[in-house]
Amino acid sequence: MTLLTPEQFAAAQKANFETLFGLTTKAFEGVEKLVELNLQVVKSTLAESQENAQRALSVKDAQELLALQASLAQPVAEKALSYGRHVYEIVSATQGEFTRVAEAQFEEQNRKVQSLVENVAKNAPAGSETAVAVMKSAITAANTTYETVHKATKQAVEIAESNFNAAATAASKAASQAAAQASRSSAKKAV
């Protein structure tokens, strides 16, 4: 008994190749966005480093140098946080596409297995109802397990995203406070 005709097998292979190439394209797009982001960061960092070096060379005393350093601390921290957010967004979007495709593939395979089980049940010899019921039960258990794992994974991702956002906010506040404190310290020393 053959489960797939040659035409069905060819169609399945074609669909698998289309999915593979689609995912490869999405992965490449994600890498391309990361490379573009990194190039932008390097370009802006070089320009800012040159500007900051020129400003540092033009200071007249230690208090002015401390004030300059304090004024640079917060922008650097904010840019690092912004970079982290951009990387997270790119990776998250790419991962989301992979998840969407995986879910669609799982649902399609699940539908095919259900159809196969129904077909087997219709054509099963008398007295095999127990075996068919066991197969259906196993498929239901597998689907339930998948749904449970999927929900748990989704919750874990949401928690991780929330923690990332909270850490980014806390780091931004800490950088602002450190810059303000350094400015106050350098102002006190100047007096």
Secondary structure: elements and pairs:
Blueprint: H1 6-57, H2 62-123, H3 129-190
Helix pairs in contact: 1-2, 2-3
The string of secondary-structure elements, in order, is HHH
Instruction: Give the number of domains.
Output: 1
Please report the total strand number as a whole number: 0
Main sheet?
A: none
Rg over CA atoms: 29 Å
- Number of helices, counting only DSSP H or I runs of 4 residues or more: 3
Low-confidence stretches: none
Shape: elongated
As a percent range, the share of strand residues is under 5%
Compute the average pLDDT.
83
Helix percent reads over 70%
Q: Strand pairing plus helix content: what structural class? A: mainly alpha
Distance between the termini: 94 Å
Question: What oligomeric state do these chains adopt?
Answer: single chain
Word description of this protein:
- It contains three helices and no strands.
- It has one domain (12-122, 129-190).
- It is mostly helical and 191 residues long.
- The termini are far apart.
- The model has no long low-confidence stretch (mean pLDDT 83).
